[in-house]
Design goal:
By secondary structure, this protein is an alpha+beta fold. The chain has helices at residues 11-25, 32-38, 44-57, 95-109, 124-129, and strands at residues 2-5, 59-65, 68-75, 80-86, 114-120, 133-142, 145-155.
């Protein structure tokens, strides 16, 4: 497996990985209604275009294994870790840690003082283990459906 920078050719695999991961990995913490609001199949074409733009602007990394994207993450230049998803078949293999560690090194290079994220219930234990602290719990609304997540921060000082 290797970590590399995102290219626009990755977008279809990334959008599929996101949908499948949310609907398989996050189902232990969220209802089907919540999963559908968070990662709707109907939003795929919109996600293909809006995410391609966002991932191209952000610092976006991909973990690839024999042509298959096993995980991806993106962070703004201001230190907001927007997305971190690992393929459902590659969970618990150190991929999230490799991505976050690489983004953290980039944050240090940019002289940032912290990395912020909004972590799902499912991802919260991972982020705590990676040194992030909960700032507060929040409820966000997607398509009229409420989802709980956590604003988390990791100090880089």
């Amino acid at each position: 497996m290797k970590i590399r920078t995102f290219t626009e050719q990755d977008i279809a695999q990334i959008v599929t990985l996101f949908y499948e991961t949310v609907h398989s990995v996050n189902k232990r913490d969220y209802s089907q209604e919540q999963l559908n609001a968070w990662a709707s199949y109907e939003d795929e074409s919109q996600r293909l275009s809006t995410w391609k733009d966002a991932l191209s602007r952000n610092i976006t990394l991909v973990v690839e294994n024999n042509g298959v994207i096993a995980g991806f993450a993106d962070m703004t230049a201001q230190g907001y870790l927007d997305r971190l998803f690992v393929h459902k078949e590659y969970q618990r293999q150190g991929i999230a840690s490799a991505l976050v560690n690489t983004l953290e090194a980039e944050a240090h290079r940019l002289d940032l003082t912290e990395i912020r994220t909004e972590a799902s219930i499912t991802a919260k234990p991972y982020f705590e283990q990676a040194g992030f602290e909960v700032v507060r719990q929040q409820v966000v609304e997607r398509k009229g459906v409420k989802l709980e997540n956590y604003i988390m921060v990791k100090s880089l000082r």
